[in-house]
Amino acid sequence: MSEIVDNGNAQKRAPLRNSDLLPQTIVPDEYFVYLEPGYTLAEHKRTVGAGVLPEGSIKQVNNLLSNRDSVYYIAYLSKGSLDTVRLDPGVQLVERNIVGYVDDD
């Protein structure tokens, strides 16, 4: 995790993968969000708040095949929502979706 400064307090946020790709290779505002093993989507939603993940923003929720206790979801996130999601200590990694990517999980 990387550290950021928010209102004078150092906070950690989950890394953001694929942020350096060309704009035409990514799906705008669409992200894969990987939660820490054992951390549930319900816990995550409570932590980030209802306004960050409004109804309809989450497209799909899956368990990782390699670890059934690990959940990830695909969602449309605004810049502000993305920042809030990344500050949740239960978020392991956030990844921008790539054009043409097919989720096989």
Describe the protein:
This protein is an alpha+beta fold and 105 residues long. It has helices spanning 41-48, 79-87, and strands at 2-6, 9-13, 16-17, 26-35, 58-63, 71-76, 91-98. The strands form two sheets. It has a five-stranded mixed beta sheet with strand order 3-7-4-6-5, with helices on one face. A two-stranded antiparallel ribbon has the order 1-2. The model is unreliable at 1-5 (pLDDT under 50).
What share of the residues lie within helices?
10-25%
N-to-C SSE string, H for helix and E for strand: EEEEHEEHE
N/C terminus separation: 25 Å
Largest sheet: 5 strands, mixed
Helix and strand composition category: alpha+beta
Numbering strands along the chain, what is their spatial order in the largest sheet?
3-7-4-6-5
Strand content: 35-45%
Helical run tally: 2
Provide the gyration radius in Å: 13 Å
Averaged pLDDT, please?
Answer: 84
Oligomeric description of these chains: single chain
* Shape summary: globular
Low-pLDDT segments: 1-5
Please count the beta strands (DSSP E, at least 2 residues each). 7
Features of the shown structure:
single chain, 40% strand, globular, disordered N terminus, 105 residues, alpha+beta, 7 strands
